[in-house]
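Batch job 17 of 40 flagged for manual review because the log was empty.
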Amino acid sequence: MAASSAPLPPQLRDPAWTGRVFWTLAALVLLYPALVATEFKPWIIFEPQALKSTLRFLGDFLPPKVNGEFLALVAREAWRTVAIATAGMVLALLIAIPLTLLSTRALSVSGLAGRMRALPFAVRLATRWLLILLRSIPELVWALVFVRVVGLGPTAGVLAIALTYGGMLGKVYGEILESDDPHATNTLLRNGAGRLQAFFYGLLPQSATELTSYTVYRWECAIRSSAVLGFVGAGGLGQQMDNSMKMFVGSEVATMLLVFMLLVWLADLVSARLRRILA
């Protein structure tokens, strides 16, 4: 007993274990009110009535519908989903790039002396608040708004992705640019170069790979979002899936879920391949 209770040698002790225990307990204390507020009760899933309903719901999915006419419809909607995501990303870039140039301190001529003048500072601050506004409203909410403005269809999805992702891209682009070494950019600005010249010859060469990688990743996310937006009438595969669910045609839903999983897998594959090429 005496041997087993002997203290561990110094090389076997973990000096950070007390901190880990403390922060683990603190996280559990903070998490508990959140679980109570959300009425998190996962054991309900295993109650007999819930299991019966789940099995009946899943049973309607088998077998998936695979006739030619329906598969052609699903293929068209899957392509439309990719088109919504791609068009939305192009518009998001048109929003994000100018706002990034306005909000990036490294491109401020008045900031070279240390403290920015009042007007450039106000423009930069207003631009950052605009980016916060755009990204703080989820694309699902934007889609609900645009469905009421332009009607059902892909246009609402494209606009929704453009606004939310424009805010996201603008924020991250700005952070990437401001994290780079500003020496080349400052030198160009001090010698009379314009903001665009300083961006293209000073900041962009350092950040091009990271900016492109993040853009490709966001395009991949936009494909997922475009499918979800279809459930509020914004077109694409999600809207067709919503129609089938409302009609309780489980076999059609199963087919579209499989196609959507294949679509996401292909998007992941393309995205990973592009990032590997750019790395």
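Reviewer: the log was empty due to a logging misconfiguration, but the result itself is present. The CA atoms of residues 188 and 207 lie 17 Å apart. Unflagging and moving on to job 18.
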